[in-house]
Design brief:
The complex is a heterodimer of chains A (about 325) and B (about 525). Chain A folds into two domains: about 200 residues, Multidrug efflux transporter AcrB transmembrane domain (Multidrug efflux transporter AcrB transmembrane fold); about 80 residues, Alpha-Beta Plaits, CATH 3.30.70.3400. In chain A, a hairpin with a 1-residue loop joins strand 3 and strand 4. A four-stranded antiparallel β-sheet of chain A has the order 3-4-2-5. In chain A, strands 1-6 form a two-stranded parallel ribbon. Chain A has ten helices and six strands; from the N terminus they run H-E-H-E-H-E-E-H-E-H-H-E-H-H-H-H. Chain A is α+β, with helices and mostly antiparallel strands and about 325 residues long. Chain A starts with 15 loop residues before the first helix and ends in a 14-residue tail after the last helix. Chain B has about 525 residues and is of the alpha+beta class. Chain B folds into three domains: about 210 residues, Up-down Bundle (Multidrug efflux transporter AcrB transmembrane fold); about 80 residues, Hypothetical Protein, Haloacid Dehalogenase-like Hydrolase, Chain: A, domain 2 (2-Layer Sandwich), CATH 3.30.1240; about 150 residues, Gyrase A, domain 2 (2-Layer Sandwich), CATH 3.30.1360. A five-stranded antiparallel β-sheet of chain B has the order 10-11-9-14-15. A four-stranded antiparallel β-sheet of chain B has the order 7-8-2-17. In chain B, helix 6 packs across helix 11, helix 12 crosses helix 13 and helix 13 runs parallel beside helix 15. The chains are: A alpha+beta (about 325), B alpha+beta (about 525). Strand 5 of chain A pairs antiparallel with strand 17 of chain B.
């Protein structure tokens, strides 16, 4: 019979609660610096949000001479053109700011750029986005994220107790904010797919939290008299192997997207990877210890047939 | 635990088989697909433009501009109505979305009301006792016209694009006043954009020979006249930079039944034909105005102003105006398709070349395959035989996902592919939760069967809770997102749903069959 090759045999005995204040401090630092970076440096918004023109070109024969291309484009007075290598040495991503004037002005800019770069350049992707759409997209993105946070908090509050909902929301907010912080710090392009990644992070990072909370609730019923800190520690240790394993499988998928999915998906993959890692950390060091402070009503949880949503967790 | 109702087994197997069946068409080339027997579905997942290459245009119908134009013509109507009824007025002007005026003689207010009511049934007129009044279209009428303007624009855009011979274009409304145009396989949309950017409103109007351009410009514009600039080609040829033209439209482009590019004296021109009503009107006016010029006006520019040499009674004519072969055929196309009810601006344009699309498919597929292989190996390493069960369930999950996407006719985009890879990683989460629970129950001293049973039952609530939060995020993305985000939300949500089925039911069925047939004495994890 096919036996597993790797088995985590023993339940670990890590004293998470002893270190939780350090975790809080570290997370406060991460979150505050993320907010600071976001407000101070701002995000490197892609043209999806701020409008402008994007050209993805392949130079044949490669490699592309970025300095020369920048020089050619700067001579056109189209504003500050940004150029970056994109995946391979012969691929270049060019961003031009939105030109004053209507559609025709943007079109002229593209034509001028084409002429300046000359032959031997293959235009693989051309995107021209007006400014009005961007503002709407940002509004929709922020709305969706805020709604997601609340929806998750309400759902957890409904399935457990409201105190758990608060813990879930705090840790999810932490995950979302630090992901935004990473994008601000490393000047990664923030576009529509990044937004999708952040929403997915919000939805996914709660997974571990829910698994841990589930165990906390179960232990509360099992050991009504165990001190809360000890009980949280027990729940974290008992679920640690599944926390690590579930995250690993998702991380494997995300890593293959990051390394093999091509440059277009890079921002998405980085956001997902960070979100998955930080989501696990925050489940262990934020979501669970927060319970210690919000003090769930153990009497209500211990009483069978009480509290929300008993039917779904039947068969005790 | 061992008991599995027969209908449940049949149902699970049927769903899995259906998933595989629906996936098959996506794995073969279209040529092979045609040769497959009818029992296999032929629906393939549609690829988004970022994968197959093509152009995507987001257009905005400028309804406000159409409203402004309507108000300007309304002001003429109000003026004419009051003049015809011999009612004195002052201060006639456009204010916001209404026309304001003041009736000089308060005793004629009722007459004014009657005169204005005849203009348009949707016109709401209010006149106060001191004679100051306003006229505007009712909100319902304006609202309806907005909707109609967008609907009509979609129709006309469709006709224009069809005339260019683009294959499988998609033209749909987005939001209130936007139109999304998708043109697969077009990697240089300049011609389409040029065609869409023009309103193509054609009118034939008489030139007012009694008024000079200088007088008109210095403020002595005869009532009922307007100054229209000459098109560049006309200016280059004949000189005048503008014409004083009577506002009354003899015939409009809506009365054309055909327009074709052709040649006259070796020069490209556009020949056209009016419908019966247009032909009659054109005949009448040209008979009365022989020797005078009339203006052919396109989008408020005079393309040419030929002299009427003889009455044009047949309802057919020619527009000449220094055309090139291309511009003549474009104009003919625009005239055939009809005028847009409102100007259109391009909000967004995204064009992906076929090379990049193919690269994206390759990279996305590679990432998916490698991701799945890593997960499969990972599960076997950590769970042995049970890992194999999870992997089999994962295979069916993938099929169900691709099958569902084909079935609902979803469009697969690059972020959508990322969503597939991601849900493959998430799908086995449920297996991990179940297996870890079983392990724990075994350690807790339960027998094999009761441990299996408890593992599935107790993990179920946890799995449900953790999946629902992801679904919430997916639903919000679908609701509030656009384009690529939507595509991703669809694959993510479908993947989460199918993984619930496969990880719980399929895995359970596999384990139950294994226990029944092999009668193992211990759980191999």
């Amino acid at each position: 019979m096919l036996k597993p090759l790797i088995v985590i045999r023993r339940t670990p005995k890590i004293d998470f609660m002893r270190w939780h204040k350090l975790g809080f401090a570290f997370s406060a630092f991460l979150t505050l610096s993320s907010i600071g970076l976001f407000l101070g440096l701002g995000l490197n918004y892609g043209i999806d949000f701020v409008g402008g023109t994007l050209l993805q070109v392949r130079v044949t024969p490669g490699p592309a001479n970025l300095a020369e291309m920048r020089h050619q484009l700067d001579a056109l007075n189209l504003g500050e053109a940004s150029l970056q290598g994109f995946g391979s040495p012969s691929d270049v991503l060019i961003r031009l700011p939105r030109q004053p004037g209507g559609d025709a002005a943007q079109e002229k800019a593209v034509e001028a750029a084409r002429k300046a770069l000359g032959p031997g350049v293959d235009y693989r992707r051309i995107e021209v986005v007006g400014p009005s759409v961007g503002a709407e997209l940002i509004r929709a993105g922020v709305t969706a994220t805020v709604l997601a946070l609340f929806a998750i908090a309400v759902y957890i509050g409904f399935r457990f107790e409201w105190q758990f909902g608060i813990g879930g929301m705090i840790s999810t907010l932490h995950d979302v904010l630090t992901t935004v912080g990473i994008f601000a710090l490393f000047r990664l392009e923030f576009d529509l797919t990044t937004l999708a990644a952040i929403l997915t992070v919000a939805g996914y990072s709660v997974n571990d939290t829910v698994v841990i909370y589930d165990r906390v609730r179960e232990s509360m019923r099992k050991y009504p008299r165990m001190p809360l800190a000890e009980l949280i520690n027990l729940a974290l240790n008992e679920t640690l192997s599944r926390t690590i394993l579930t995250v690993s499988t998702v991380a494997l998928a995300v890593l293959s997207l990051l390394f093999l999915g091509g440059p277009v998906l890079r921002g998405f993959s980085i956001a997902m990877l960070w979100g998955v890692v930080i989501g696990t950390y925050s489940s262990l060091f934020i979501a669970a210890p927060v319970l210690y402070y919000v003090r769930p009503n153990r009497a209500a949880i211990a009483r069978p047939g009480e509290g929300a949503a008993r039917p779904l967790t039947r068969a005790r | 635990m061992l008991y599995f109702a027969r209908w449940k087994i049949v149902l699970i197997c049927a769903v899995c088989a259906l998933g595989v069946l629906l996936t098959i068409p996506n794995l073969v080339s279209p040529a092979t697909l045609d040769r497959l027997p009818a029992i296999i579905p032929h629906k393939q997942i549609a690829l988004g433009l970022d994968l197959r290459g093509g152009s995507y245009l987001l257009l905005q119908v400028d309804v406000a501009a159409a409203e402004r134009e309507r108000l300007n013509s309304l002001i003429d109507n109000v003026r004419n109505a009051l003049l015809d009824a011999n009612i004195g007025y002052t201060g006639l002007a456009v204010k916001g979305d209404a026309i304001v005026f003041k009736i000089r003689q308060p005793e004629r207010i009722d007459d004014a009301r009657q005169a204005l009511a005849k203009i348009d049934p949707d016109l709401v007129t209010t006149i106060a006792a001191d004679g100051s009044g306003s006229a505007q279209f009712s909100t319902a009428a304006t609202e309806q016209r907005r909707r109609q303007a967008v609907d009509q624009s979609i129709e006309i855009i469709r006709r224009r694009i069809d005339e260019t011979g683009t294959k499988e274009p998609t033209i749909e409304r987005e939001g209130e006043d936007r139109i999304l145009v998708q043109l697969p396989g077009i990697d240089n949309p300049e011609r389409v954009k040029a065609l869409l950017g023009r309103t193509a409103k054609l009118t034939f109007q008489l030139v007012d020979t009694g008024a000079s351009l200088e007088d008109a410009r210095s403020g002595h514009l005869p009532p009922g006249d307007e100054i229209l600039p000459a098109a560049e080609s006309d200016r280059a040829r004949y000189g005048p930079s503008a014409y004083v033209v009577k506002k009354r439209v003899i015939v409009g482009g809506d009365m054309l039944v055909d327009a074709q590019p052709t040649f006259q004296n070796n020069e490209p021109v556009v020949s056209f034909r009016f419908d019966a009503e247009g032909a009659r009107r054109f005949g009448d006016v040209t008979r009365e105005n022989v020797g005078k010029p009339f203006a052919i006006v396109l989008d408020n520019k005079v393309i040419s102003a030929p002299i009427i040499r003889e009455p044009i009674l047949g309802g057919a004519g020619i527009i000449s105006g220094s055309f090139t072969v291309q511009s003549a055929s474009d104009l003919a196309l625009l005239l055939r398709a009809g005028a847009l009810p409102a100007p259109i601006t391009i909000l967004e344009e995204r064009t992906v070349g076929p090379g990049l699309g193919a690269d994206s498919i390759r990279a996305g597929t590679t990432a998916c395959v490698v991701g799945v292989v890593l997960v499969v190996v990972f599960m076997i390493l950590f769970y042995g035989l049970f890992g194999v069960f999870a992997d089999i369930a994962l295979f069916f999950n993938l099929c169900l996902m691709l099958g569902s996407l084909s079935l609902i006719g979803a469009t697969l985009t690059l972020p959508g592919i990322a969503g597939i890879a991601l849900t493959m990683g998430m799908a086995v989460d449920a297996n991990v939760l179940i297996y870890e629970r079983i392990r724990e129950e075994v350690r807790g001293g339960r027998t094999m069967l009761s441990a299996l049973d408890a593992g599935f039952k107790r993990a179920f609530g946890t799995i449900l809770d953790s999946h629902i939060t992801t679904l919430v995020a997916g639903a919000l993305m679908f609701w509030l997102g656009s384009g690529p985000v939507k595509g991703f939300a669809v694959t993510l949500s479908i993947g989460v749903l199918t993984s619930l089925f496969s990880a719980i039911l399929v895995t359970r069925l596999l384990i139950v069959s294994w226990v029944r047939n092999w009668r193992p004495r211990a759980v191999p994890i």
